[in-house]
Write a sequence for this structure.
């Protein structure tokens, strides 16, 4: 349950960012990071914990997609 | 690569602390790529796996009260307590709602001021700042109908405990997302005090192989150091905002680890001035309340592989889990079962 998933911020309103996870838009709290529209963030339990470089985020997304098969079937 | 495959030195035992690493090790068949002299064992890397049955019982009791809704992450729902799981309690009518973020409590509580929303606050350093943020927002909004039922744990004291009680573990692959919060520097005292290498790495196959290589090299060179191979994600100092939030609301206390027992200062509880947000419960004797025959304690300390548990795959399966290691997506028993 410690897994954090990367996503891209597409809009910001106050402390809340709309984050795109593979096409799903989710509201994410941005209080713990300095991030804006276009940044990739590592999100855990609805909160962004860290800003990520784009290629790092993409590599992680790819990996978690694969791991999901391992843990969910 | 060939170094790890052909390694013929003295046997080494490496613990991967984090369930996501365990999952990736299986997915990528990493055990088959390295010499049998290098043994990878799964640690207590999942907060669900180490939550005692007494806590589940307390959560069930809370959810059965009038005007109370228990909010929980989905992976807690199937964990067995002594009186059944939260899922069973829900089926019998208890008010239990699965959430993906504790911050959802804010909106729920604002909409229904007459209902008390109790958050089943389970987690390691990764999740604790989220509960702290929830409290900050409750205080800001003047909400008095949100409380926490806490079973929060910190990984560092548990790793120290493992170093002391399982001296034949030679090195550690550190948990990735816990380290995002604590920072790499948090492992330095462990490496120095216990004379073992700690390596932080990402979750990809090449990351894990690089980490195993690094750990074996450090062990062989007798260099008990911390190495961070995941500097893009894990900073030296971690996330200071998250650390400050944790320190504002929580203070260390002894905690009960399922299958292990009590470890001093390995948990976090609300500070006295915020105790009115706490739902107290008796931790009970966490060893006595485990399911009979469940060997989770031995699994998460690396003493046995899941398949060596007599209940594994026969009595205990993901659809009828006897212990939390089988329930959680990151639990060692569950990962072994799904990848038999
Ligand atoms: S297989 Fe089931 S009973 Fe055995 S240790 Fe794992 S969770 Fe416990």
């Amino acid at each position: 349950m410690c897994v954090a998933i990367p996503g891209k911020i597409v809009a910001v309103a106050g402390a809340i960012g709309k984050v795109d996870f593979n096409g799903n838009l989710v509201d994410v709290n941005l209080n713990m990071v300095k991030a804006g529209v276009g940044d990739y963030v590592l999100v855990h339990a609805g909160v962004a914990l860290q800003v990520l470089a784009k290629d790092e985020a993409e590599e992680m997304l790819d990996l978690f997609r694969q791991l999901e098969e391992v843990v969910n079937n | 690569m060939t170094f790890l495959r052909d390694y013929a030195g003295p046997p080494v035992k490496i613990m991967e602390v984090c369930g996501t690493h365990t999952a990736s090790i299986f997915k990528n068949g990493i055990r088959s790529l390295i010499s049998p002299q290098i043994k990878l064992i799964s640690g207590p890397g999942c907060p669900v796996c180490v939550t005692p049955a007494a806590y589940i019982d307390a959560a069930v009791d809370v959810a059965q009260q009038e005007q109370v809704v228990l909010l929980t992450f989905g992976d807690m729902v199937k964990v067995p307590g002594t009186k059944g799981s939260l899922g069973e309690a829900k089926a019998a009518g208890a008010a239990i709602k699965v959430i993906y973020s504790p911050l959802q409590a804010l909106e729920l509580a604002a909409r229904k001021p007459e209902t008390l929303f109790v958050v089943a606050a389970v987690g390691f350093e990764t999740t604790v700042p989220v509960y702290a943020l929830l409290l900050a927002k409750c205080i800001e909004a003047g909400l008095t109908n949100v409380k926490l039922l806490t079973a929060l744990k910190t990984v560092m004291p548990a790793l120290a405990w493992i170093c002391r009680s399982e001296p034949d573990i030679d090195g550690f692959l550190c948990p990735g997302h816990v380290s995002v919060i604590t920072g790499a520097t948090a492992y330095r005292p462990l490496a120095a005090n216990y004379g073992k290498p700690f390596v932080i790495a990402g979750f990809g196959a090449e990351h894990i192989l690089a980490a195993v290589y690094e750990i074996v090299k450090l062990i062989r060179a007798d260099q008990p150091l911390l190495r961070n191979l995941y500097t893009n994600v894990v900073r030296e100092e971690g996330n200071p905002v998250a650390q400050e939030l944790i320190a504002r609301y929580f203070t260390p206390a002894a905690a009960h680890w399922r299958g292990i027992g009590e470890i001093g200062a390995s948990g976090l509880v609300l500070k006295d001035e915020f105790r009115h947000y706490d739902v107290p419960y008796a931790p009970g004797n966490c060893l006595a309340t485990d399911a009979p025959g469940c060997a989770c304690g031995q699994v998460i300390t690396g003493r046995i592989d899941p398949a060596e548990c007599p209940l594994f795959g026969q009595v205990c399966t993901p659809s009828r889990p006897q212990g939390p290691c089988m329930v959680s997506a990151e639990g060692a028993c569950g990962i072994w079962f799904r990848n038999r």
The longest helix of chain B spans residues 205-220.
